[in-house]
Amino acid sequence: MGPSFGAVVSPGPSPGSRAARSGTYNPVVDREAVAELLAALAYGEQVAAARARANAAFAPDQRRREAQLGIAEREERNWRLIEARMHEFATPDLTPRFQPFFDAFFAGTEPSDWTLAQAFHYVGDALVSDFADILVEVLDPVSAEIIRRTLGEREWQESFALEELSRAMEEDPTQAERIAAYAKRIVGEAITQTRRALVQTTQLRSLLGGDEGEKRMVLDLLERHRARLDRLGIERVEID
């Protein structure tokens, strides 16, 4: 059994969340969907941890290398915690169903240097946090709290990446174009692979609200992504 959080109360819906507009968790109908979601997220965090650790090789100095390794260690803890909750549903056999989509996403977004490694964290990890905000409204309270603690609460990580990207653009203004193009690739791959994954599971798709729920989710994620690019100070790039 994984760690217990006791009597956890799920946070109330935020005004712009998809779930606030479409309903809440139904323990009878949605248990299989939650199991599928946990299996997918556990594998996703496992691969994300490996990516974060590999990114340490790009660090230009020891201070930043240690900071990057700290990010990797956090992702590894996230993976173990989500995996522990998944095992409470006794569904490790679900993981291979989602593995191809995560593998394709990470293969298509591999960074080539420190700047793009931080862009991956600033854009890609933030998308995961945004997704977590949506998920906590439709999950059972314990799973919701685990997802909030693991996939959310990445403020330091985002701030570190933002600082590194801002420094890179100050030193070389042409980096802005590279970051914008890479950000577009990350978001495009994330949306493509998420849609492909949802096609494979009617339960999970139903949990997120079917076709309409998927559309609202994508629009919500894109809105937050564009706001994040504004904070970074680079030109918005429309997603195809």
Describe the structure in your own words.
This protein has 240 residues and is an all-alpha fold. It has one domain (28-232): Up-down Bundle (Ferritin). It has ten helices and no strands. The chain has helices at 18-22, 27-55, 62-88, 95-108, 114-135, 141-151, 155-171, 175-199, 202-207, 210-232.
Quick structural overview:
Helix content is 75%, strand content 0%. It is mainly alpha-helical. α2 (27-55) runs parallel beside α4, α5 packs antiparallel against α6 and α5 packs parallel to α8.
List keywords for this structure.
single chain; 240 residues; mainly alpha; Ferritin; 75% helix; 0% strand; globular
**CATH homologous superfamily grouping:** Ferritin, core subunit, four-helix bundle
- Please tell me the overall pLDDT: 82
Helix content: over 70%
CATH-defined topology: Ferritin
**Rg, alpha carbons:** 18 Å
The CATH level-2 architecture is identified as Up-down Bundle
